[in-house]
Each structure stands twice: as structure tokens, then as C-alpha cells.
Write a structure and sequence with these properties.
There is one protein chain. The chain is built from 5 helices and 8 strands. Helix 3 crosses helix 4. Helix content is 23%, strand content 10%. Strand 6, helix 3 and strand 7 form a beta-alpha-beta unit. It is α/β, with parallel strands linked by helices.
Amino acid sequence: MAHRDPAAAVSGAQVSFIGHDCEHIPDFLGEKYGSLARRLDLSFNRLRSLAGLKDFSELEELIVDNNLLGNDLGLPRLPHLHTLTLNKNQITDIEALLEHLREVTPSLQYLSLLGNEACPNQLVSLDKDDDDYQRYRYFVLHKMPHLKFLDSRKVTRIEQAEADARGAFMKVVKPKVDADPSDQRSESSATPYTPLPRGSRDGKNHKVMAQCGAAHVGEMAEA
């Protein structure tokens, strides 16, 4: 889809390009603001890739909520990025995402994935519960132990210790896209259910607010 170059909203080192229905990051953003921007908000577009951020080498905060981003983010290496919100996109493979983020965002401390299938909670599926969500948190924190804030909640020392000890065994199974009716394998042969360890169900008070992705960023900044 062809677009004119609509003006971005700029305030100091903060650049916003919201609600333009862009399917790719316009070249002019990197050319004009790549070396300036420390915080970039690209929410409410139709982005499918973040490869266009290659000129934003000094970026520290990135908000790309409400886009069409899938498992192949194409995110370039951003060594200074500490905050990333990917709420309400189309990410399903949490392990692939985390491996990618570990490689290209070595300074990441704040991550939010609410509203994606990869983040199992009642916003994306009514059959998910707080235990499913807590297992997901343990797995994410096992993969990315330097995170201080995940989704709408701060990471506690107890939670990180539990993730270090058990997170590797709490992998979130990628949702099936197409079920083959001829496949005779029973569900019992799939990846076994991993119960939460006793005393670690602090996810019971988890109240997700994906509709307020911007509010989460504000909480992150204050953390």
C-alpha cells in the first residue's frame, strides 16, 4: 500500500507515528529521526515487520502495540533498547521470539506481550487460567533473566528464583494452526501438562489490561 509521508509527532527524543495503517516502516522516519529518537511509538498501524528500524541504532523504548506482527519480527540489533511492548499482535511462538530478542536486544528489561496467542491468558483464550499465565512467566523469565517487568507486573525475586529453577520445564506449547482430522494420535501423547510448583501461584492476582498498553509503558517507566 502506497502512502504519502505524513508528519510524525516529535517531542524531544520521542517520535510517534500512530494510526497511519502503514504495512512497513516508512523510510523517511529513519532518515529524519533515526539518530534522534530514543523513544518510538508505532502503535495502531498494520506493520508485519520491524526491519525498517535499522537506522534507529540509539533507540531505548519501542512501542508497537496493535499491529500485525507475527513470529518473524525482523527486528534489527538495538543494543540500547530496554523497553519493548508488543501488545495485541499475532505472535504465537514464544520460544522463537525470546531467542530472537536475546540476540538483538541485549539490554532489554521491560517486555509486554499481552493480547498475543503466545501469552496465554483469558484475553486470547477463555480456556486459559492464571496457572497457564504463571507458567508462561516462568518460561519467559528463564529465557530472559534480566527482565525487571513482564506484561503488567513487576518481576519479584521469588518469581525469578522459581523461573531459574523450573522455568525450562514450563515451555508454552505453540497453538496448533491446522488440526489434521486423520491424525490418530491422542492428546495424551502431546507435551505433558506441567503443574505449577507448590507455593508459586502468585499469578492468582493477575489482572490483565491489554487495552491500556500505553498505561503499561507508563508503569514501566516508573518502575
